[in-house]
Design a protein that fits this description.
The chain is mainly α. The chain contains 9 helices and no strands.
């Protein structure tokens, strides 16, 4: 199986579980919006966003092939799970901002749990390469979504825990947030590279964070005993 195909095959369940986690936690907190929309399902077709899952990745791939001759990065997203924060409650007490932060955290948390599950499964003798790659993908998705800028999950978590004036300012950036993330972390590095300037904050950060996260998961799951 080619690297790109393997990445896609393992990426799909990681993204599906991520989205279902948002909807399921919202359901536990009293909001049935995701359930009524049919999003509490592991059927990947229910989670495809036409632009974020199909059009944008194809546009990015075509643009990079036309300019630099190869695909250096791809970016996309699943269809966001609908959540009505006003319906969220615990024991009849509503706190939309705080409870929405919990719903937002559920997605990355599930990816981190899946990474741990893959780490424990590495003790077997079957599919070790696939399990390690699945662990990496889930760590990458979990960490990436914790970027504290809406509409990333980390941004919504920040909106839920920051003082109200700062939370309002951050929430107002959501309309431009995805374009800021896409431009700063992915498009700008490619453009700068054409002028001989290296600017790649996301890759630089992940070169440090991802190996450290992998080490922690392998240590916790008993794959690095004595290290």
């Amino acid at each position: 199986m080619s690297g790109a195909l393997l990445y896609l095959v393992l990426l799909i369940p990681a993204m599906v579980f991520h989205e279902v986690a948002h909807g399921y936690v919202a359901h536990l907190l009293g909001d049935e919006t995701a359930k009524n929309a049919g999003r509490l399902t592991l059927n990947p077709l229910k989670h495809i966003d036409r632009f974020g899952s199909v059009v944008l990745p194809l546009m990015l791939a075509a643009g990079q092939i036309a300019t630099i001759g190869h695909v250096q990065f791809l970016y996309g997203w699943a269809k966001p799970v609908p959540v009505n924060a006003l319906n969220l409650q615990v024991n009849g007490v509503r706190n939309p901002r705080r409870l929405m932060a919990i719903v937002a955290f559920a997605g990355p948390a599930v990816n981190l749990l899946l990474a741990l599950a893959a780490g424990f499964a590495l003790h077997g003798d079957v599919g070790l390469v696939y399990l390690f790659f699945f662990m990496q993908i889930n760590l990458l998705i979990g960490i990436f979504n914790l970027i504290p800028l809406p509409p990333m999950d980390g941004g919504r978590i920040a909106v839920g825990v920051l003082p109200l004036p700062l939370a309002r300012m951050l929430a107002q950036s959501e309309r431009l947030g995805i374009f800021l993330v896409l431009g700063l972390l992915f498009i700008l590095p490619v453009v700068m590279q054409q002028f001989g300037v290296r600017f790649d904050p996301f890759q630089d950060a992940m070169r440090f964070i991802l190996p450290y996260a992998e080490h922690i998961v392998l240590l916790v799951t008993g794959n690095l005993i004595g290290n």
